Amino acid sequence: MRGCIVGRAEDTREALRRAQDLEKAGQTKESILGYREVLHTDPQCPEAEVGLGRSLYSLGEYAQAVATFEEGHRLRPDDPEILHWLGRSYLQEKQAEKVLELVSREGSSSGQSASMHLLLARAYDEQDKLDEAVREIQQALKLDPHCRGAHFAHGFMAWGTGDMATAEHELRQEVDLDPRESLAAHYLAEVLEKQGKPTEAEAAKGLT
Predict the structure, then answer these.
(1) Where are the alpha helices (DSSP H) in the chain?
(2) Is it true that 10-80 and 148-208 share their CATH fold?
(3) Which residue in 15, 68, 135, 158 has a CA-CA distance of 20 to 30 Å to 199?
(4) Is the pLDDT of residue 148 over 90?
(5) Spacing of C-alpha 44 from chain mean position
(6) Is domain 148-208 in CATH 1.10.3720.10, yes or no?
(7) Domain ranges in the chain?
């Protein structure tokens, strides 16, 4: 009997590795089938839940991703990756209030990572609470000065309120962190054009 149990566990691990390899290779639909196969065999596998959730998210199936990450969170409530993806999925489903509830429910520990502060910032921004959003971005950057997306979020908010100087500064920071970030370069070009800096704007457009 023990040999059968061990054999099934090894088969499940191998199936999980195959699904993860498919996900990494960009074969998203195939990875979904693979992760579901694992969960059919082992419904309590959090690695399969988070992998399935990521794959669904990448296909834009956000409602299904939410359900999947919620189950993963139930299985592993302290997993920061699951918290991060669950928060992102809530935002895609226009459920900013659930991001705030999630962090509040999980206590201060979940809010200590830069990525969670950035998610909180986006949730507050969705609710037009800009002061709170900026505060969370500042916390994210305090924890991780290279937090991807934080400078962009701050710059985009400043652009929306007409604060072009702050928008330029923050968007430049984001582009410096990743010159391939075409969306940040696009808005930087717009900001520079509004500030009467056509040469710099053209250079930024070259990055988009």
Answers:
(1) 2-24, 28-41, 46-58, 62-75, 80-92, 96-106, 114-126, 130-143, 150-161, 164-177, 182-194, 198-205
(2) yes
(3) 158
(4) no
(5) 24
(6) no
(7) 10-80, 94-142, 148-208
